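Homework help board

Subject: predicted structure for assignment chain

Our instructor gave us this sequence and asked us to write out the predicted structure in token form, then describe one feature. I got the tokens but I'm not sure how to describe them. Can anyone check?
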Amino acid sequence: MMYIKGVGMTKFDYSQKAWWQFAYEATLEALEDAGMKISDISAIVLTTISSCDGVSEHQTHKISLLSDLFKINCPIIETPSVCAGGGVAFWTALHLNEFKPSTRAKLGAGPVPHRNKVSGAGNILVVAGEKLVDNKSEMTTHWIMSAAERVIEQTEGMLFPVQNALVWQQYMEKYGATMDDLSLISFKNHQNATLNPKAYYYKRPISLEEIKNSPVIASPFRLFDCSLSVNGGAAVILSKEKTDIEVIGSGFATDYLLTFGREDSTHFKATKLAKIEAFLQAGIKPEDIEVAEVHDAFTSVELFSYEDLGFAEIGKGAELIRSGRVNLDGSLPINTSGGLKAKGHPISVTGLAQIYEIVNQLRGKCGERQVKPLPKIGLVHNIGGTGGSVTVHILRKVV
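My token output:
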């Protein structure tokens, strides 16, 4: 496995910077965190859906733009995977450990990128930047829905809130969970976000009463069951050189684009498959996880992901939120950052922002929202679309 040297993240908000500015700012923070310069990077993995503008900022040669921005000539790979973009980019970077930095210096063509003493890749920058909210709601929705099936499902009105609401209706009927359970998840995540300076809802508390009485978006979902579209950036620097944070497990799986053509519409098979791979690599069990960032694009997804990730038996996920076990002071705190729900969800950036949170939790740098006692093992769960692509990563604090 590989190690994490540095992490960076911008504040999630509606500031109207270009997507590459968010990526740039996050990278500078990650480099500072790692005590490195950009010339120490030997490869970059980028993920973004670019801008919803589609005109003045739409750039299809983003890897060359990054070369220009960072004044670097290393290999740059782009791995778009919509909401799972950050997790997929991270997974891709982990699998570049056989990459050999260029020998072009021997040919008189410039300096060799930094290469550590361990065989394989040098330092790999994984970065994402997104200016998602910069247009009319109709255009932003159009871009977001490019992550779903556009011929059969969308012509029937199957936008993401509708898809997930139908999944949740089936889950409730089958297992007996309630909308009150989802309200508790939303309330938990909003409480955590008020303590996170980089979250959209920082110092902006929302009451349980407000959540339960918010407008209906797609019955039975209300406004506060849905994640918040924002702008932002995040970055992670990976290396084979030993640091204080080790990646001990990494899983990635995909599933059919047509949500209701799958084996089980009440759970995400890709989460289960990615989870199995990650835990096998890590050599641990779900009960060993001490803190987790779980993909909560909708509150319902967080609840049944408790089950898909092995934290609860199938149909018993609601017990975790009812008991308070997943609260900040519980035995398994989940979404200490505020989650997508209240920190915000800038599509491709989310997976790396989740890693940012878990790394800082393991390092004891989360201030008022710090999990106590200090956790040693954390999990990151990132979903693309309605369960169409999923990554699960497990991180460990090296003593």
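Reply (TA_rk): Your tokens look well-formed. For the description, you could write something like this. The chain has twelve helices and eleven strands. That's the kind of observation they're looking for.
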